[in-house]
Amino acid sequence: MSNSTSNTPEKEHKSSYRTEERRTLSSGEEEFFFDVKTSDMEVNMGPQHPATHGVMRVLIRCDGELVTGSQVHLGYLHRCAEKIGENVEWLQYLPYTDRYDYLAAMNNNLGYSMAVEALMPGLEIPRRAVLLRTINVELNRIASHLVAYGTYGLDIGAITPFLYAFREREWIQSLFEKICGARLTYSYIRIGGVFNDAPPGWLKEVGHFCDVFEEKWKEYRDLLALNHIFIKRTAHVGVIPKDMAIDFGLTGPMLRGSGVDFDLRRDMPYMAYGEAYEAGAFKVPVGSGEKGELGDCWDRFYVRVEEMMESIKLVRWCLGVIEDGPIIGEIPKVIKVPAGEAYVGIENPRGELGHYVHSDGGKIAVRCRVRGPSFTNIAVVEELMPGTLLADSVAIIGSTDIVIGETDR
Amino acid sequence: MELQAIHDTLKAAGVVGLLGCDEPRPANKKEKDPGRAGMPFLLVDPAEIVPLLTACRDESRLQFDLLIDLTASDPAADGDDLWVLIQLLSLKYRHRLAIKAHLPKSALSIASATAVYRAANWHERECSEMFGITFEGHPDPRKILLPDDWAGFPLRKDYEFPTEYHGISCE
Questions:
Q1: Residue A262: closest CA among chain B residues belongs to which residue?
Q2: Sign of the C-alpha dihedral, residues A386, A392, A394, A399?
Q3: What is the 3-class SS of A176-205, one letter each residue?
Q4: A72 in a domain, yes or no?
Q5: Which contiguous run of DSSP H or E holds residue A174?
Q6: Is residue A318 a part of any domain in this protein?
Q7: Is the residue at A369 inside a domain?
């Protein structure tokens, strides 16, 4: 690993893209020549670029097709989530959590709710609420990974898988619409439980979805993950060795793609995951370097593909044990949280989503810190880019599966 | 490993700058103590942060190999201190450590943790622009989320909201 500063373009670097000269032809006429220099050219990828998955700017310096340095610029979508957290009541902040990782809003709701619940020692979450939370979080994980799957195909140049993936994602969204009324920003998981019970027939439909998805999943895997051209584009590209992944603090599929067997759901269980793991309901997929090298883009991608199937198994397990009962603990209308501080991290589709909350016993938080997984995961791109081809830079950014709403918050 | 055990392990390894544990405690009405809920923190001396983090990472019984989060907090506008908060995680032993360092507002400077964990790089940049803390020895101390010309430190409690930005009224 080289020093992180060595591969970023220097500030005072002056780029001249063209060489210009005047030549005198044999006829005596003067002619003006110019040539576009291909060495040491700076390419601005973004802020409006489809492959950056949002408004992010990557400044790439390249020598012909070869990338020699890169610098990531964030902040185009900064919406002051943490400052807002210090100005609104505990429950009022919940809808803002939907908006950082907008592809996995259920997970964000859960992370925030669990952090606040950690400050309320007497609060008990009913079992039905725990299982409803787990079902919804896992369905949301599938939906989020489907977007990752589809858009990564788009980045690489495969358009059809995207359309397939969005067909199933649409179904998950309509399931969410039935249970909470929203398709993207749910605010469904509340402090103390969930806010709405499953409508009649909902759990049955989730079971039906699992059956159908299991069949479709094989199609997805064969269509994109095992596609020869796709493998050629992603294997051996953007390799993150184990120690580098750990040094950069990567979490989630990025870490597991590099061969580190760690998943908060299994290793530091919360909600129903501990019980589910003991019952053998899910495994933790880890990258193996099957098609290329350990920690390449394909490994990261395939970890996500496999995780979708594990989530289906988890949902099935939850459907088997769920029983009728209350769905929210005893929570007053205006929540007052006891004085204290807590940090709670949960496994989001993109990695560890952490909330540090600090209460002075009042209605409003003193500090509400959000640790978004995309923010740390994208930092590694600056390190991966130098030495790769310009076309691979898209494959590398796509494989990190970032959501700009979360990097910028 | 529980926090007290981690504290003792570090102490046995000869780490300096340990200032004790901030454990949660139940409310005590007799002594009018509101108590503290939540999770325990390891209190440390900000001057010793780098050797401490190195020990946390390298000590074989701790092995905190991931720096999950680095942030700060301004608990009170009239308070004297900012808190620097660091979350570590061990992949092998599956335990967490929360570190808290009190930094006086009169001297907001702490050594950068980037030499120990490269994950600290961006977290420190964010922390620096939001709270005005200087991280000594940081390789790339630019702003990260805010515009380069942003004045003030937004997450400080005494921050005043700007009324206009480049001729755009914000009121």
A1: B91
A2: negative
A3: HHHHHCCCCCCCCEECCEECCCCCCCHHHH
A4: no
A5: helix A160-180
A6: yes
A7: yes
Tokens for A403, please give them.
């959501």
Residues 6+ apart with CB under 8 A from A250: A240, A258, A351, A376, A377, A380
pLDDT at A12 over 50: no
User: Could A339 and B36 be called an inter-chain contact, meaning their C-beta atoms sit closer than 8 Å?
Assistant: yes
Q: Give a yes or no: residue A188 inside a domain.
A: yes
* Distance in angstroms (rounded) separating the CA atoms of residues A46 and A6: 23
How many domains does chain A divide into?
1
Instruction: List the domain range (segments joined by +) for residue A341.
Output: 81-376
**What's the fold here for domain B3-122?**
Beta Polymerase; domain 2 (3.30.460)
pLDDT tens-digit map of A329-351 = 888 777 888 888 899 999 999 99
Largest CA distance in chain B: 59
Contact B37 A249 (CB under 8 A): no
Which contiguous run of DSSP H or E holds residue A364? Answer: none
Confidence of residue A33 (pLDDT cuts 50, 70, 90): low
Peptide bond into A47 cis (omega under 30): yes
Distances (CA, A) of A117 to A93, A166, A264, A364: 14, 34, 18, 15
Tell the burial category of A11 from Cβ atoms under 10 Å away from its Cβ (0-12, 13-18, 19+): exposed
Q: Pick from A184, A168, A130, A192: which is nearest to A337 by CA?
A: A192
The one-letter amino acid code at A201 reads G
Provide the shortest C-alpha distance from residue A32 to chain B (in Å).
40
Q: Name the 3-class secondary structure at B37.
A: strand
Of A118, A268, A369, the CB nearest to B39: A118
The residues spanned by each domain of chain B are 3-122
ipTM above 0.95, yes or no: no
